[in-house]
Design a protein that fits this description.
The protein is an alpha/beta fold and 350 residues long. The protein is built from twelve helices and 13 strands. The strands form two sheets. It has an eight-stranded parallel β-barrel, surrounded by seven helices. Helix 5 links the parallel strand 7 and strand 8.
Length: 350
Amino acid sequence: MSEPLELAWFAALCDDDYELLGVPDPTRVSSFEHCSAIVHAADRAGYDAILMPSGYALGIDTVAFTAAIARSTTSIRPIVAVRMGEMWPPQLARQLATLDHLLDGRMVINIISSELPGESLAGGPRYARTREYMHALRTLLDGRPLHADGDWVSLDLDPPRVRTTTGTCPPLYFGGLSDEARDVAAEAADVYLMWPDTIDGVRAIVDDMRARAAARGRALRFGYRVHVVVRPTEAEARAAARHLVSALDPEVGDAIRARSLDSQSVGVRAQASLRDAADDDGFVEPHLWTGIGRARSGCGAAIVGDPQQVAAKIRQYRDLGIDTFILSGYPHLEECERFASLVMPQLRDA
């Protein structure tokens, strides 16, 4: 555990905030007012970072929103999600360098490799595009001339005049379970992000990714994206988890999962397999509840328990080599404050 612990929250920019999953609440729809309230609460509560997710059909724009709240935050580091292919790398580098200045150097970049709106592209070429874009982005943000002759990026170009505050590329966070995704991460990412899995599953992924990175003469850090449901007692936490899905229409849940651009990815299918392996209450192992994935695509499980149990579960992942935890919970504002009050002090004191 040589790396410091990083605790991050989730800004719910993609119309993903509910009191009851699958039951729309107009007061929690993605908007500047609602999402900025979550960010500011996380900043005040002492979270290290906050994920700014990206989606075309859902919610508000990630970069525009992050720029709007940059000067009203104090210490929290936005993890800004950008989709490879949506913007030409030189312009993206210039935009992100400017954003880093607005944030006084607090920006982190979350690389998303997905089909673009209206696009149909197989995994192989999609990850090839992502690899070339990541190389171009890192080169330009490092302030170096780019000489690229690839299938997706072919140009000779000096970097933009505007630089990040450090003059180097901020850390690139990246995730994906397919072989193509793992190879891209091993070659080009700084932090490999994973969605919820069992302890044994996480251990296997970390071991595999360490080997892939080492084969390329590199080392990776690891991050874990998971929901939390924490209450003063385990019984209350499990009751709160049941309440979250108590009004969910299965057809509505199916529609929510299907509308995501990555709804057929290897990672999403793995989350479905996790649900299939769970017991009748939705738990696939102690304190890892998969019911939350019935109503959302992507990250589909939550750590459920009392403060000591949730902290202990996070420490188990930490012992496997994970140092970054990107957390969320429903409703996002209330669970953000609850986790900070009940669990964060135990982890900070560890």
